[in-house]
Amino acid sequence: xxxxxxxxxxxxxxxxxxxxxxxxxxxxxxxxxxxxxxxxxxxxxxxxxxxxxxxxxxxxxxxxxxxxxxxxxxxxxxxxxxxxxxxxxxxxxxxxxxxxxxxxxxxxxxxxxxxxxxxxxxxxxxxxxxxxxxxxxxxxxxxxxxxxxxxxxxxxxxxxxxxxxxxxxxxxxxxxxxxxxxxxxxxxxxxxxxxxxxxxxxxxxxxxxxxxxxxxxxxxxxxxxxxxxxxxxxxxxxxxxxxxxxxxxxxxxxxxxxxxxxxxxxxxxxxxxxxxxxxxxxxxxx
Length: 286
What we know:
By secondary structure, this protein is of the alpha+beta class. The chain has 12 helices and 6 strands.
């Protein structure tokens, strides 16, 4: 019979990584009087999108088999390296993501840069345009993605809805100059980069079968790179806001960092700054 060495189990690993991460590294305000140097359990729970009780049960060993999505969220919140992330998967008795599959994990260096951008609206999408991270500025400008089920937090599913139960990822009307063809061709590029990814394959199958516009564009076989786009968000509190949407892609993981900015000194810049202050009106989903 094998036993886990003291301090080497799933709960101990999560607790150790939580204690080593300072709040400032996670974009949280620094409070002088603080008992813990690292993250509190409630802070980790909030960053990972799970309940505090679940974090407690994990650390105490009363929960030992979290789902792959929970493990991925914890790894991002704890800013683990790729090796640490894979170790966390194995401790949870899950096979780590293999080469040839899409990665949702944000490297620590990328997370540091994102945090230092402050309230500039920023989100990170995986290679299949699954939303994996966003900040307060993004939620204030477009609505909180938590209003959508995890499966629907995908830009392609939002752009090419299937069925009547579609839940929009963006809560306000948005017009842009980005043709649908660019998104479809980018997904085709992803299928060549990640040929063994089951999530990507299922996405393409669903959209091909359920959305006529997607099927039409997919049949053309085009492959293009991302480009800058200008969008106008009809924000319910501050009115129309025109922003430049730039996409930066990580070469190894194909993670897409999407940044929304407005022209310096413009009325749109003022409105964009106001969105982080006033937020959406009362009664909206946010």
